[in-house]
Amino acid sequence: MIYTLTLNPAIDLFIKTQTMAPNTVNRTDSYDIQANGKGVNVSCILKRRGVDNVALGVGGGFTLDYIADFLTQQGIRNHFYKDAGFTRINVFTRVVSDDTEYKLVNPGPEISPATLKQLYQQLSTLGADDWLCVSGSFAQGIAPGFLLQLGALSQERGFQLIIDSAYPEAVKALAYRPLLVKPNDVELMSWFGQSGVTDLSTMMALGHRALDAGAQNILVSLGAAGALFMNREVTLVGNAPKIDVLNTAGAGDTMLGTFLAGLYQKQDLAATLKLSIAAGSDTARRAWITDFTQTDELLTQIEIKQLEG
């Protein structure tokens, strides 16, 4: 069974408006309220790819209830450990007139050691047949070093670990041989103390460093340039299709969820990467994540090249 872990879920308020000016009332065109958090998105994508999964996490208040209820309505089993305070609400605003997007992301509630201990006890029941995908930021009260605890637990219990995290601790967690890591290009550079141009040759060199450090597979989101996949047997790269971007929130999660589904179902890696790029791109032109009904038209624009292996 695949378990997703969201340690700082959110409700995202997505707003579309023609203009936005300071110190005045701005009338919007439309809005959408979305249950979110990176692991939540991955769970929804897995479900849409026919992969049953369980969504785990922490949070608080009526906002957490909204997310749990949404997942239940989607047919996704879930268990969120509740603490004081409220799960955060983020605001994403697309301003049409100047083609800009404003992202207001809040920190989330304080999670107590007692609540985190309850979650850890459940994670300690996972075994060799399970995969755990931990995605996104951590709420207040959860140190980034929790990634290392999860890495150690994965080796102790025998489950496969998937990491999508910008924290520097993700590099140290590579020593626990995660099945898959999914940084974007900027995150991969920061993992290894690099700065400057994120060209493909640099990404491949850093990808090899991640593999040498212990990662079994690495999937790198390259934004408008597409995506890169690497393991010790093969290196694949695919371009991104041309789209009109509406909302970038969830695009990376969509790519990860789609790729994870293909990996779990033992599908061809090149075909899986191609669909993952198409799905992430489709999400970026929607108010919320793709339902895969319009990915075929994007697939025709994507070419997967094998660079190594």
From TrEMBL:
One term under GO cellular component: cytosol
Reactions accelerated catalytically: D-tagatofuranose 6-phosphate + ATP = D-tagatofuranose 1,6-bisphosphate + ADP + H(+)
GO biological process: D-tagatose 6-phosphate catabolic process; lactose metabolic process
Domain Carbohydrate kinase PfkB residues, every copy: 11-281
EC number: 2.7.1.144
Keywords: ATP-binding, Kinase, Lactose metabolism, Nucleotide-binding, Transferase
Family statement drawn from the similarity comment of this UniProt entry: Belongs to the carbohydrate kinase pfkB family. Belongs to the carbohydrate kinase PfkB family. LacC subfamily.
Name of this protein: Tagatose-6-phosphate kinase
The species this protein was found in: Lacticaseibacillus chiayiensis
